[in-house]
Specification:
Layout (H helix, E strand, L loop, with lengths): L3 H14 L6 H7 L6 H14 L5 E6 L2 E6 L4 H5 L11 H13 L4 H8 L5 H10 L2 E6 L7 E5 L1 H7 L10 H8 L27
Antiparallel strand pairs: 1-2, 3-4
Helix pairs in contact: 1-3, 5-7
Length: 202
């Protein structure tokens, strides 16, 4: 088994080279399971501390650990990237918020809450982004699909679990739900998507 310094360097290299968060179980494979999960988490915490105060931080997310740009530096990093973040309509973001806070839900549940229909394009927009998935079917006539958010959704928001979601009232203010009644809209490029975590470093 490598000494702690060598182990941290290997973990650091693996995380910096990965485009996706890396789980503790995957990191164990680096050491052929000679280091247990508890020791790995301790090394990860030490590595996170080693990077504190720098422009890049090590964060723990729903599907694993990754390096990413600190939020305060993100506007500057964005200037180097000509590709703009995807934009989603108000209807898409309202639908996502309902799924996140009421999951699992059917399309009918979402329509009851929003008071308007949910188009197939809205659901497809969220599925194609990898933010929602079908997790089952309700045992009612027609067996409608039940939707829930994914680990990718949490990763993109920089969260480890659904318990870290901000209060629903904060989401409502962001979407301005209280000030303006929802209107049916196509899932087109109309309004900014919800903010996501900093740029992944790899």
């Amino acid at each position: 088994m490598p000494n702690p310094t060598e182990a941290k360097r290997l973990i650091e290299a693996a995380l910096l080279s990965s485009p996706e968060p890396v789980s503790v179980n995957d990191l164990k494979r680096l050491f052929e399971n000679q280091i247990d999960a508890e020791t790995l988490r301790k090394l990860l915490e030490e590595l996170r501390e080693d990077w504190s105060g720098r422009a890049v931080e090590l964060v723990s997310l729903a599907s694993g650990w990754r390096f990413q740009t600190r939020p305060e530096f993100q506007p500057f990093v964005d200037k180097l990237n000509p590709d703009k973040s995807p934009r989603y309509s108000r209807a898409v973001m309202e639908t996502l918020a309902i799924i996140a806070y009421r999951q699992p839900v059917t399309r009918g549940d979402i329509e009851d809450i929003r008071g308007v229909g949910v188009s197939t394009q809205i659901v497809q927009a969220l599925e194609s982004r990898g933010w929602i998935d079908v997790v089952g079917h309700r045992d009612t006539p027609g067996r409608p699909a039940l939707y829930a958010t994914t680990k990718a959704f949490l990763d993109d928001l920089g969260l480890r679990s659904l318990q870290e979601l901000p209060p629903l009232e904060e989401i409502a203010r962001t979407l301005d739900l209280e000030a303006q009644p929802a209107q049916p809209q196509p899932a087109a490029n109309e309004e900014p998507a919800a903010p996501i975590a900093g740029t992944v470093v790899h």
